[in-house]
Each structure stands twice: as C-alpha cells, then as structure tokens.
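Support request from a user on the community tier.

User writes: "When I paste my structure tokens into the form, the page sometimes reloads and wipes my input. The last time it worked, I copied everything first. Here is what I submitted, just in case something in the input itself triggers the reload:"
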C-alpha cells in the first residue's frame, strides 16, 4: 500500500529535502511509524503523547483528520496525506494603533 505524504519545508530536514515521500500503513499512526523508520525524528514533530501535536494540521485527501478519526484515521492505497504546520498570529497592539483600531 503506497501513500503519498507531502512534507512542509520546515520538516524537510528529516526527509533529505524531499517535499514528498511515500509511506505505508492502515492508519495514520501506522503511517507515521513507517515514516519514522525511514526518516528518524519526524514522528516526534508530528505526534505527542499518542495524539497529533496541537500546531500540526494533517489532511487526508484534503479532509482535516481532526474531523475524521485523528491519528486513528484509516488509510487506503493511493491516499494523499498533507502535513501543514499551523500558522498563528495576528495584529499586535502596535499594529492596531498603526491601523487606528485601538
């Protein structure tokens, strides 16, 4: 079973610069275990305490896995998994003052 995994730039140091790798597994957890066996260290950036890290978004065929079964989400041959770091931020006080919204 081959599953394509798209890797964000920040994690490509674990995949020798590859932006896409293939992996295997019946669930997302098994896929991450498989990736870890070939790309040591990547799993620790994705999973903490058996769950997805808070600031990591994972999509299965464009569906957010948090709205599916999380790390237990079932996978099928030919699926695409996209890993995206969450982006946080916003206008701080200095920005609100500058924009006249304070």
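"...and here is what came back when it finally went through:"
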């Amino acid at each position: 079973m081959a599953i394509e995994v798209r890797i964000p730039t920040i994690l490509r140091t674990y995949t020798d610069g590859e932006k896409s790798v293939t992996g295997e597994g019946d669930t997302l957890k098994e896929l991450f275990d498989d990736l870890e066996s070939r790309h040591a260290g990547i799993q620790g950036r994705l999973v903490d305490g058996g769950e997805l890290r808070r600031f990591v978004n994972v999509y299965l065929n464009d569906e957010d896995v948090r709205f599916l079964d999380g790390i237990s989400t079932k996978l099928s041959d030919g699926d695409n998994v996209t890993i995206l770091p969450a982006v946080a931020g916003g206008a701080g006080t200095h920005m609100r003052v500058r924009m006249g919204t304070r």
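Agent notes: The reload is a front-end session timeout and is unrelated to the input. Residues 3-99 form a domain with the Ubiquitin-like (UB roll) fold (CATH 3.10.20.30). The longest helix spans residues 28-38. Escalated to web team.
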